Amino acid sequence: MSTSQQTDPLIGRLVDARYRVRARIARGGMATVYVATDLRLERRVALKVMHGHLSDDTVFQSRFIQEARAAARLADPHVVNVFDQGQDGDMAYLVMEYLPGITLRELLREQRRLTVPQAVSILDAILSGLAAAHRAGIVHRDVKPENVLLAEDGRIKIGDFGLARATTANTATGAQLLGTIAYLAPELVTRGMADARSDIYSLGILLYEMLTGEQPYKGEQPMQIAFQHATDSVPRPSVKNPGVPEPLDELVLWATEKNPDDRPSDAREMLDRLREIERELGITPNVTRTTPLGILRDDGAPSGDLTAVLPAAAGTGPTLAVEEVDNATALRRATRRRRTRGGWLIAVVILLAALAGGLGWWFGSGPGSMVVVADVAGMTFTEAQQRLAQDSLTAVEQGQNSLEVEAGRAIGTDPPSGSRLDKESEVTVLISLGPAEVQVESLVGKDKAEATGILDSHGIAVDGETGLFGDAAVDTVVGVTIHPRAGGDNVSCGEGCTVHEGDTATLSVSLGKLPAVRGLSVDDARGTLSDAGLEVADSVVEQPDEEIAAGLVIGTSEREGGGAWRPGDPVTLIVSTGPPLFPVPEVIGMTRDQAIQELEAAGFQVDYSALWAPFPDEITEVASSNPAAGSMLTKGTRVYIEITVSG
Questions:
Q1: Are residues 548 and 568 in the same domain?
Q2: Does residue 113 share a domain with residue 236?
Q3: Smallest Cα–Cα separation from 126: which of 181, 76, 66?
Q4: How many CB atoms lie within 10 A of CB 397?
Q5: Backbone torsions φ then ψ of 357, nearest 5 degrees
Q6: Of residues 84, 142, 160, 199, which has the active-site annotation?
Q7: Which of 39, 309, 464, 627 suits a disulfide with 631, CB 3.0-4.6 Å?
Q8: How many structural domains comprise the chain?
């Protein structure tokens, strides 16, 4: 158990003689949440206890009671159940179902961005829970990743209805406008008004963040972010993540329209469209679906709707009807007291809400004992540590890969900048390790599209392509060159390599075999090679060829520098001059057989008068040859020799 847990006075305490506090789960600006044991029912519960310095504030007491009432009116498998609400001395508390697991914020920190099926599954569950709330006339008003719970058993629930209000009472002023700036609807910024469509806008921002790993609007100060909500349009998620399908692009744009009338009217309408998209994309959400309870009518009979007003348990307090009246009276009295304390203060808060999008929380009733986490992005860890120490916060270093932030610099903090924490709390400073190292498999022999997809999955973009003539099939990868993002020598990656996200690649792709030109005329050969993208020289090289007739193309010159031919290379044609010519040897004075042997060795055929055949060779002598010695003839030409006999 941590030191902070050991020093927490509530650990081990028995609350209201029923709930034994075991450990602290989380701490927020308004309350701390503990895991406790309900001794009466022998089950684990989550106990939400209002901060002590807020217990005397009627505004926060009203919000605390309001959260219990809003959540208790809902009985939906995707809404965190509220079991009880009470007071133990000066301590106000809520009892909720305990869901071991993580929040959507923690999942986003771990994965950066979610896959399309993950995002669709989570959005399906959130919309189901909000649809029940909207049907019951409840606007959540604080939809954000911190309020979406992902249980270990696969259940997905939305909780923390601390800002929820009836849709008929939809104005927001002062401390009521406490929604997180990053997810704030434009109408809350400009008019301080909220209804079910404001939840839809927050959901659109949430879906954008799940698909891209970041929020659409960023700024140094909350006022800058609020201004962007009021003036800018949310971009398509596919701009940041090309893997996002167009239907989800359109769903984000629809949900985040500036004019509320242009958005889905409520969560049910958006859920219906999401279900159509699920069918289009072939996605089956991995969410827990159970049969919802029905609303109870005043006579106790089920109405068939999907949300429910839970009756008070016997012996646990007044009935719901009495609680409604008491709470309404308390809220009216609190409102009158606030008015008497100074109408000018309300006017100032309303003005700030309209101009800055709900800065009342930061500059109004926020817990004075807490400090704001400073923005340390871009600093070294030492610089960030010193800056956080100025606010009495302790920095803890944690490495994280990043494409955008150079190694050794801070990406951000956990909790993020702008969060409010107790003094002496630990803040994790995320220090960039630079791009993540990736192992790329062998790509030679794969289709160009397949290789591009593999590289893209590793965060490596293909920024160029080189065509090569060769024996491989067309569009087959024959080589890959990786260009390191950080600079340095290129890496040959055809047979696999270890590189980094953010690097780029050039593919060498087969264009098939070089066109054959042997036996073509010079003009036809020029046209064929030019069509293939080669630069054919005007001059030609001539040489004899025993097979190719004079004037026809034998082939092409060797590529300068060797290697495979590629478009744009210069090439020279080799043209045949016909078969080669050879000189007739000198045979005059030789005997008959000597002359025949000499001429045949030179490649010629020999003719002579048959009259001289019977004579012995040694008495014969060649007197002349036709053609004469030195004549240039093709091999196989017949040469006639004139023979005389002596003695």
A1: yes
A2: yes
A3: 76
A4: 13
A5: 70, 50
A6: 142
A7: 627
A8: 6
Phi, psi of 467 (to 5 degrees): -90, 135
Which of 553, 548, 511, 519 has the alpha carbon at shortest distance from 536? 553
* Of 76, 98, 120, the domain-final residue: 98
Which tokens sit at 76?
Answer: 């939906």
Known catalytic residue at 142: yes
Beta bridge partners of 432: 400
pTM of the model: 0.46
- Asked if residue 405 and residue 282 are part of one domain, the reply reads no
Residue 638: pLDDT band (50, 70, 90) is very high
Same domain, 441 and 428: no
Out of 42-46, 370-374, 510-514, give the one with best mean pLDDT: 42-46
Q: What angle do CA 148, 152, 153 make, to 5 degrees?
A: 105
State which residues form the domain around 603: 581-645
Give domain status of residue 187, yes or no: yes
Model confidence over 554-599: pLDDT tens digits? 888 888 877 788 888 899 899 988 888 899 999 999 999 999 999 9
Residue 516, number of CB atoms within 10 A of its CB: 12
Contact 389, 395 (CB under 8 A): yes
Task: State the average pLDDT over residues 492-513.
Answer: 88
- Residue 173: pLDDT above 50? no
Residues in the chain: 647
243-281: per-residue pLDDT in tens?
999 999 999 999 999 999 999 999 999 999 999 999 999
Q: SS3 for 417-442, per residue?
A: CCCEEECCCEEEEEEECCCCEEEECC
The answer to whether 119 and 241 have CB atoms below 8 angstroms apart is no
3-state secondary structure 598-646: HHHHCCCEEECCHHHCCCCHHHEEEEEEECCCCCEEECCCEEEEEEEEC
